Amino acid sequence: MDKIYGIDLGTTNSCISVLKDGRPHTIPVDGNGIVPSVVSLDKENLLVGRVAANRAAAFPEQSVRSVKRLMGTTEKLKLGKKDYDPEDISAMILRYLCDEAGKIEGGDIDRVVITVPAYFSDAQRRATMEAGKRAGLTVERIVNEPTAAALFYDQVKIASTDAAPVHREDAGYVLVYDLGGGTFDVSVLRMGEIIEVMASTGDTHLGGDDFDRRIVTRIMRQIKEKDDIDLNDHVPALARLAGVAEKTKITLSENAVARVNETHIPAPGKKTCTVSMEFSREELEKMTEDLVDRTIVCVEKAMDEAKLTPDKIDRVLLVGGMTRMPVIVSRIEQIFGAARMPVVDPDLSVANGAAIQGGIISGENCEQILVDVTPHTLSLEVLSDEDYTLQCTPIIPRNTQIPATRARMFGTVVHNQETVRLNVYQGESTDPDENTLIGKTELKLAKAEADCPIVVEYSYDLNGIVHLIAEQKGYSRKTEIRIDSRNPQPVSQNLSEIEDGEWYEEDEPEAEARAINFVTQRANTLIAKIEDKAKKKLLSDALARYEKALKDDDGDIDGIEDELLSLIEENAEENAEEN
Ligand code: ADP
Ligand code: MG
């Protein structure tokens, strides 16, 4: 075939794409096109890709991962009885990609563009060329990964009238944040006829594997505590748990909690062990915060190097599987704002950009690609634990590529809370009054301690239908509604066409009543708990004054409320065991 294919030869995963009718298409090798960069020896056979990765979990000693780290060195890799150069292993991955893609495409693939990190040295680039040659391919060009990503994003048109427009002429400076499995790269590019890398930095030992390792450590600690088995240096167990941890991490990108249930984990002395535990997204975020911080430091360094301030960056591109982790998106948004971040599949953009480069070399035309995104943020109204006001907290941020499903976990406010109101808002503000209420439902709760986890999941499909599921974790209490977000009926109308959902009259004072209810409930809970008679009385009196002021609707209600709140705070601290 005379087409030139684009290959992202990644440390963890590789991907192959080609331009068809002016648009890049990922070839679905190994199912979804994301091919693990793993080679594993099975008796005499060398396996590559997904099957190799599966085997590597059980036979880590007979497998090679992350060979990209060794490109440009003279290190030898042993598989069975034979020694291999890093170029040989990379060649096997390239050969596999081209063979499998060729089967799907119906023809031989021999011309390719291969991407490398912007910081790759000359020796590393030459080794990559050599790998292509050893795979029997003609390497038409080596392209920098951030440049490829920028080429791809340059074609993307956001298919939503409200979403931030992405204009070609706007794209003066682009920052590419690429967090992969084992490496982190950040580059600042100047767009134009020639895309110029102005700064490139990163950390060659920071990536998804580090996040996985934190989860592994936590699981091992649990096993140690439960069964007194130490898996620290037990390679088969570590390989197995690494896979479990990665799955858990990926689950937590879309779900608020993930369960780990593993049996027959290999343990020293031909024993096995089991583990059963739960991780929340919050926990994962806490235990990996320092890793994310390190990437942010690199971003600042790259900006310094390019002598630019965040407001000068026209677009921020998120690349690499790890950028699916929601906290990474929000941290970057804090610096650059959401409007400058078109959301497109972070796994495929480098290979797609390489395919565009291939198309440019062979003289093909490129068309714009249309991507569907959510035009508004969909949020949930929650009680802020700082000032007890009702605030909108985003569940699906605006500009998320659809279809999308996102879940978050919240906690109940008081003991034995009876219900949770679920008010779905559309809009960018944290103030519910500035957003549009598009649907409401209520979840009746089973009796439980305060801070009982409530998982709220929103799904947004291509037709703009929002599906909400809320669940009280561990009590099988669940509620669901569907809302047509593109055609939200005024909430005061009778909405009989809405399926299995309940709509309520919009009631202005309702939110206020809820806040009041929260304050009084909290005061009552504390009054019941406090042992010190004087303090108990002080709080009861303040509550009585508050209730009277509310009833008579006169006096300085706000002042009285403040007084009560500060008493609540004081006592809550002393009764820290309250929850
Ligand atoms: P590389 O460029 O190093 O080959 P990738 O860009 O393919 O790597 O990223 C691989 C990393 O992304 C792995 O650590 C993988 O676990 C992680 N990853 C993939 N999907 C997700 C997801 N949905 N949420 C969080 N991490 C993910
Ligand atoms: Mg990559």
Give the helices and strands, then pairings.
Elements: E1 4-9, E2 13-20, E3 23-26, E4 35-36, E5 39-42, E6 45-48, H1 50-58, E7 63-64, E8 77-79, E9 82-84, H2 86-105, E10 111-116, H3 122-134, E11 138-144, H4 145-155, E12 156-158, E13 173-179, E14 184-190, E15 196-203, H5 208-227, H6 235-254, E16 257-267, E17 271-280, H7 281-287, H8 289-305, E18 315-319, H9 326-336, H10 349-361, E19 369-371, E20 378-383, E21 390-396, E22 404-411, E23 419-426, E24 436-444, E25 453-460, E26 465-472, E27 477-484, H11 508-529, H12 533-552, H13 557-574
Low-confidence residue ranges:
160-168, 490-511
User: What is the CATH superfamily of the largest domain?
Assistant: ATPase, nucleotide binding domain
The name of the CATH topology of the largest domain is Nucleotidyltransferase, domain 5
- Output mean pLDDT: 86
Secondary-structure arrangement, i.e. CATH architecture of the largest domain = 2-Layer Sandwich
Provide the CATH top-level class of the largest domain: Alpha Beta
Helical fraction: 25-40%
Instruction: Look at the helices and sheets and give the structural class.
Output: alpha+beta
Describe this structure in words.
The protein is α+β, with helices and mostly antiparallel strands and 579 residues long. It folds into four domains: 5-206 and 291-372, 2-Layer Sandwich (Nucleotidyltransferase, domain 5), CATH 3.30.420; 208-289, ATPase, substrate binding domain, subdomain 4 (Actin, Chain A, domain 4), CATH 3.90.640; 378-506, Substrate Binding Domain Of DNAk, Chain A, domain 1, CATH 2.60.34; 510-578. The chain is built from 13 helices and 27 strands. The strands form eight sheets. Strands 1, 2, 3, 4, 10 and 11 form a six-stranded mixed β-sheet that branches. Strand 13 and strand 14 (184-190) form a beta hairpin. The longest helix is centred in the last third of the chain and has 22 residues, at 508-529. The protein starts with a strand and ends in a 5-residue tail after the last helix. 41% of the residues are buried. Bound molecules: adenosine-5'-diphosphate and magnesium ion. The site of adenosine-5'-diphosphate (ADP) has 20 residues, from helix 6.
